[in-house]
């Protein structure tokens, strides 16, 4: 099924009416002007791809901005949490990064995907289950076994 594209005049009209308010909304959520502008641009691009399937553009755009800002903030919190591990100013040694990558390669593709979705994208287990097309319990098992395999490989 091919999406029906939005008329350029309609897109331009909604863009000019909603852009500033959406950037303000995004800024209040992220606290970062650049991130706010990026989020809003991504949302407008997503809306354009949805075409005529979106019947209330302003409501769709607000919901999408809030959702993407929430994800942005969640990622920043995770980054800060991991950065605090290296608060002494030392980055992890190259050998450590290489060892972790080698441990990841030892995992089966589905395990590797579960670990990536959980610890890199910081997705909750329910969303990982949806992405992998499996049950929540399977995700928990995949993550548990994956971490055990990696710890064994890394000698922890």
From TrEMBL:
Residues 15-76 form the RNA polymerase sigma-70 region domain. Residues 99-150 form the RNA polymerase sigma factor 70 region 4 type domain. GO terms for biological process: DNA-templated transcription initiation. NCBIfam families: sigma70-ECF. Belongs to the sigma-70 factor family. ECF subfamily. This is RNA polymerase sigma-70 factor, sigma-E family. One of its GO terms (molecular function) is DNA binding. Coiled coil: none annotated. It comes from Catellatospora chokoriensis. The lineage of its organism: Bacteria, Bacillati, Actinomycetota, Actinomycetes, Micromonosporales. It comes from the Bacteria. The keyword DNA-binding applies. Keywords: DNA-binding, Sigma factor, Transcription, Transcription regulation.
């Amino acid at each position: 099924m091919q999406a029906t594209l939005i008329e350029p005049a309609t897109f331009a009209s909604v863009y000019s009416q909603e852009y500033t308010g959406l950037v303000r909304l995004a800024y209040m959520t992220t606290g970062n002007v650049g991130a706010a502008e990026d989020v809003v641009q991504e949302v407008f691009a997503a809306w354009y791809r949805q075409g005529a399937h979106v019947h209330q553009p302003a409501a769709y755009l607000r919901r999408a901005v809030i959702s993407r800002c929430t994800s942005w903030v969640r990622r920043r919190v995770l980054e800060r949490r991991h950065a605090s591990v290296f608060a002494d100013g030392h980055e992890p040694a190259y050998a450590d990064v290489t060892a972790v990558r080698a441990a990841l390669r030892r995992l089966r593709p589905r395990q590797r995907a579960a670990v990536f979705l959980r610890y890199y994208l910081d997705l909750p287990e329910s969303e990982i289950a949806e992405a992998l097309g499996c049950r929540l319990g399977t995700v928990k098992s995949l993550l548990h076994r994956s971490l055990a395999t990696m710890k064994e490989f890394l000698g922890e």
